[in-house]
From TrEMBL:
Keyword annotations: Signal
Keyword Signal attached: yes
Protein name (database record): Uncharacterized conserved protein
PANTHER family named in the record: PROTEIN YGIW
Pfam family, one: BOF
InterPro entries xref list: BOBF_sf, CarO-like
Keyword Glycoprotein annotated: no
Amino acid sequence: MANEDTIVELTGHITQSLGDEMYLFKDSTGEIQIEIDNNHWLGLDVTPEDTVIIRGEVDSEWNTPQIDVDSIQKKA
């Protein structure tokens, strides 16, 4: 996994809501928890079948790496 605060762009699927703005994201390399603040959704409706592109930074302050998402979009 990349170092703390490394900017990343990932393409995959949000497979599950974990509550409190936390989600499970899956791509071809595996799964990771991501945090998407409510204001970053911008009215986007996403299902587990939708392919999305997320951009954000690595946050590993709790020993378990996660992605703090800055933007999300559906892949066309």
